[in-house]
Amino acid sequence: RLYRLVWARETSSMRITIVGTGYVGLVTGTCFSESGNDVTCVDRDAAKIESLKEGHIPIYEPGLEELVARNAKAGRLTFTTDLKSSIIEAEVVFIAVGTPQGEDGSCDLSAVRTVATEIGRAMVGPLVVVNKSTVPVGTAVVVRDLIREVSSHPIEVVSNPEFLKEGAAIDDFMKPDRVVIGTDDDGAADLMRDLYSPFVRTGKPLLVMDPSSAEMTKYASNAMLATKISFMNDIARLCESVGADVSKVRQGMGSDQRIGPHFLFPGVGYGGSCFPKDVRALSALAREQGSTLEILDAVDAVNDRQKLRLVEKIVSRFGEDLSGHVFGMWGLAFKPRTDDMREAPSVVIARALVGRGAVVRAHDPEAIETARAEMGDLIEYRSDLYEAIVGASALLLVTEWNEYRRPDFVRMVKLLEQPVIYDGRNIWNVEMTGKHGLEYHGIGSRRVADVRK
Do strands 326-330 and 394-397 pair parallel, antiparallel, or not at all (unpaired)? Predict the structure, then answer.
């Protein structure tokens, strides 16, 4: 065990190393430097490090570029490919490397294992190593054992799962709902409390628990949120069948304090780097333990099916053969305020439409390049949202960016070949669009503003 005396420091500023400059690592390192710590971000990708040194941010996250520039200029935030030199002076090292999904849905820990061994070989004294990557239960023990195989220095491994929403990551880090710390060592717990103290001054809980419980907390949280989304998407389908309006149902449900209003919005399914991967990883973990999580298996299946909901509606309206039809698509990223295309519903929708002979023309405020890297020339890309719908048989709203919420409906009617819109996020409604002469199809209601008469 590490004793409290090990962590006695003359100043409140800490020397921190962040291994991995992806989404989680870069946001974490930047926010820690913003609170006055000396942070070194490490990545083996030399081109990425050079780009970061020049002030170029590899991801789109509102507010991040400005924070990186300010703290780099102040000397509190630096970037390097040299893990060994960054660890020599560090008091705490965060592992924030990718944990991609394996073929069976389980979590691939190869990068975490490699970094753990490298940390063990580089450390020159007592160290706290923090798992910030999303990892299966038991990973803290795995990392500890790997380090101890190559180092005799005292080591404590802490689980500190991230709860960052893309598009709001800075606020989520600076003003967290809670901070979860998984450790059995009092000294490591005190260090982590000190490190996070600037972010929980308003009284938000900092929860210290055993590492396994902390690791499970991350998976269970994301699985519950994904479950709410898939449940509402199933309810939306049923509402369409029986003539109910899911928007009204959502309000009635959300008013119950036991349920709450959050994550009750139906749509075309969830995507991103967390929900799909974490749901499958938790199910895989259960299978490894000889059990099953039947609800989560259903959550995943419902989400896969829901991504094709707009395609089903289009086929019902235009027929199975979509040759000769052009469809405009607004929104490519899996959610607003990010350029992340991982598991994005837009990809599934576009491939299904093109596979039926259609042409898809798309606009997104931030994700054009990441979408091009994902889909190549499968679809056409437009920098102007209205150019994407010129001569189109219909418009599909897939991602609810703010700039789509109050469009020029009069202009849309003139540009579309047929005045048909499919609202995959229910940001408009029958009344709003119908008075402009648009045939509106949303999610979870049979009501359609039919202007074909």
Answer: parallel
Q: Which two tokens stand for residue 79?
A: 């970037």
Tell me if residue 274 is catalytic: yes
Cβ(379)–Cβ(354) under 8 Å? yes
Task: Enumerate residues 6+ apart whose C-beta is below 8 A from 329.
Answer: 346, 349, 350, 360, 361, 362, 363, 379, 388, 395, 396, 398
The pair of three-digit structure tokens given for residue 327, joined into one six-digit string: 């469809």
pLDDT of residue 13: 85
Q: Are 389 and 395 in contact (CB under 8 A)?
A: yes
Complete DSSP assignment for 230-274: HHHHHHHHHHHHHT--HHHHHHHHHTSTTT-STT----S---SSS
Amino acid at 124: V
Among 31, 41, 239, 274, the active-site one is 274
pLDDT of residue 105: 87
Residue 431 neighbours by CB distance under 10 Å = 10
pLDDT tops 80 at residue 11: no
Unique residue bearing structure tokens 């703010």: 402
| 370-394 burial: b if 16+ Cβ within 10 Å, else e | bbbebbeeebebbeebbebbeebbb
